[in-house]
Each structure stands twice: as structure tokens, then as C-alpha cells.
Amino acid sequence: MRHARPDTLQALEPVLRRLRALEGMRERSHGIFYVRSRAFLHFHEDPAGTFADIRSGPDWVRLPVMTQADADNIVDVASRELGLSTNDR
Q1: Are 75 and 22 in contact (CB under 8 A)?
Q2: Residue 45's beta-bridge partner residues?
Q3: Which positions of the chain have pLDDT values less than 50?
Q4: Which pLDDT belongs to residue 1?
Q5: What pLDDT is stored for residue 42 in this prediction?
Q6: How confident is the model at residue 88, as a pLDDT?
Q7: N or C: which end of the chain has fewer CB within 10 A?
Q8: What is the pLDDT of residue 86?
Q9: What's the Cα-to-Cα distance from 60 to each of 10, 14, 29, rounded to whole Å?
Q10: How far is residue 9's CA from residue 7's CA, in Å, rounded to a whole number?
């Protein structure tokens, strides 16, 4: 599984905009987000589709990002992991 290519990230731009709006993380390079100095969220692609890897505690969780519901879930999971309330999203 490789990191998402520029054309894949371009297709993910709507969810990337939502993620950029969340307090507490920074996009260091296109589609790669950090919290403080620690990698937090990035995207991969393979023949099965596009996935987001998001840090949950010490572990990484892989989530699909192929539908609008998947995108909504990624924003929700990122918000929870960042400790944001629904008013902060």
C-alpha cells in the first residue's frame, strides 16, 4: 500500500478541507497531518481503494475513505482523537 498520489489527494479535497479546519493538527505536506511533532493522519491507496490511517493512542487505525459516509467518519474520528466537541468541528 502506497501513500496517496496527488490525483487521489485532489479527489479527497472536500474531506481535506474539513480536516484542515479542525483545531490541534497541522498539514505539514499535502494530505499528511501532524499533532505537535507526531504524525497523526495520512492517506494510502491500493487496488482495494483509498484509506486513511489515523493515530488512536499508540496505534494506527485504517479507515476506508471511498464514500461520503466514510469521509464523515474520518472527520468524526479525528475530532474525537483530538478531544474536540461537536461544537468545535
Answers
A1: yes
A2: 2, 50
A3: 89
A4: 79
A5: 97
A6: 52
A7: N
A8: 61
A9: 23, 23, 19
A10: 5
Record the cell numbers describing residue 20, joined without a space.
484542515
Question: Is residue 65 within 8 Å of residue 43, measured between CB atoms?
Answer: yes
Q: What count of other Cβ atoms lies within 10 Å of the Cβ of residue 81?
A: 19
The amino acid sitting at 10 is Q
Number of other CB atoms surrounding residue 26 within 10 Å: 12
Identity at 64, one-letter amino acid code: P
Encoded amino acid at 61, one letter: V
Cell numbers at residue 2, please? 502506497
Q: What is the pLDDT of residues 3-15, one digit of tens each?
A: 999 999 999 999 9
Q: For residue 22, report the phi and psi dihedrals to the nearest 5 degrees.
A: -75, 135
Close Cβ partners of 56 (under 8 Å, ≥ 6 residues apart): 77, 81
**H-run or E-run covering 9:** helix 6-11
Q: How many whole angstroms separate alpha carbon 43 and alpha carbon 86?
A: 24
| Residues contacting 12, CB < 8 A, separation 6+ | 4, 31, 43, 50, 65, 71
